[in-house]
Amino acid sequence: MSERPKYFEYIRKLAKERAHLEIGETSNHVVDAGLAHIRRARGFNSVEELIDNVQRDPDSTLAMHVVESMTTNETSFFRDAHLWAALREHLLPALIKLRKTERRLNIWSAATASGQEAFSLAILIRENFPELEDWRVGIIASDISREMITRTRSAIYSEHEMSRGMPERLRERYFHKVDGGYQASDSLRNLIQPQVLNLAQSSLLLPKFDLVLARNVLIYFDVENKKKMLGQMAACMHPWTPLILGAGETTLNVEASFSEMDYGSFRFFSLENRNV
Ligand SMILES: C[S@@+](CC[C@H](N)C(=O)[O-])C[C@H]1O[C@@H](n2cnc3c(N)ncnc32)[C@H](O)[C@@H]1O
């Protein structure tokens, strides 16, 4: 009998333990693609040899790389037009008013993948809120995947990635041509602090944020782990902090401390039943 079903089961368990990731029975292609990627990157002769090494030392960085490779890193610039309009027209102006004494804005792009969300935020701020020029503005761009955070740190995006959501006018203003694509300018990079961070960790050492984006990541977890993660996020938020999830995601029936808020047809969540 083939060994494949056995190691699928092992990888599923490992991903659940380490990152709370749910890999369904129908996602064997995700396991195959992830293992093939790590086998090539780490120079193993076969997937079996790779699995043997992981099983021998499940606490190794190799094991964590295997878990990271099971994640889906799909993202794009200015993904979901409603969000960027709501941030520009309502959420950021309200937060700026609220924080005008401290002159500081702490933003968290949790599960940022290759960083397009964080760079979209930085561009939105630079383009629309010149008054923030002399504030302390920081965007923590975190993800469980080291590879994604290395990419975010490099701030280099291919022609194809730029074609997915980045208007030419903004590309010309904020990026310059380099080998392999376009690199974001220092005026954006200075706002962004890339950081490897596993949302499944038991306690996240983070400051309080004024705005949290955790889009398209909760979908990968079961209800119990969603609840744990939302609880951890709540601990890093002020009562007024907007929490923005992916278009199909909600805290309803998962974590009761959040209320659903809206701005037009745009939905977000907050610990306080009061709009910012
Ligand atoms: C589909 S991408 C979403 C990217 C971006 N937020 C967006 O909506 O465009 C999901 C990201 O969640 C990250 N992720 C999965 N499990 C995680 C965990 N336990 N902790 C932190 N990030 C995780 C993956 O590495 C991946 O980059």
Write a brief caption for the model.
The protein has about 280 residues and is of the alpha/beta class.
CATH fold category name of the largest domain: Rossmann fold
Computed CA radius of gyration, to the nearest angstrom: 20 Å
Give the helix tally. 11
Percent helix range: 40-55%
Structural category is alpha/beta
Strand fraction band? Answer: 15-25%
- Poorly predicted tracts of residues: none
Number of strands: 10
The termini sit apart by 59 Å
SSE topology string: HHHHHEHEHEHHEEHEEHEEE
CATH superfamily of the largest domain: Vaccinia Virus protein VP39
Ligand roster: S-adenosylmethionine
Total domains, how many? 2
In CATH, what is the class of the largest domain?
Answer: Alpha Beta
**Average pLDDT across residues?**
92
Largest sheet: 5 strands, parallel
Looking at this protein, list some descriptive labels.
5-stranded parallel beta sheet; alpha/beta; 276 residues; Rossmann fold; 17% strand; 2 domains; 3-stranded antiparallel beta sheet; binds S-adenosylmethionine; single chain
Model description:
With 276 residues, this protein is of the alpha/beta class. It has 2 domains: 4-68, no CATH class; 81-270, Vaccinia Virus protein VP39 (Rossmann fold, 3-Layer(aba) Sandwich). The protein contains 11 helices and 10 strands. The protein has helices at residues 4-19, 28-42, 47-56, 61-68, 81-98, 116-128, 146-154, 159-163, 168-174, 186-189, 223-235; strands spanning 104-110, 136-143, 156-157, 175-178, 181-184, 192-196, 211-214, 243-245, 259-263, 266-270. The strands form 3 sheets. It has a 5-stranded parallel beta sheet. The protein has a 3-stranded antiparallel beta sheet with strand order 3-5-4. Strands 9-10 form a two-stranded antiparallel ribbon. Helix 1 (4-19) crosses helix 4. The longest helix has 18 residues, at 81-98. The protein is globular and about 60 Å long. The model has no long low-confidence stretch (mean pLDDT 92). The site of S-adenosylmethionine (SAM) has 25 residues, from loops.
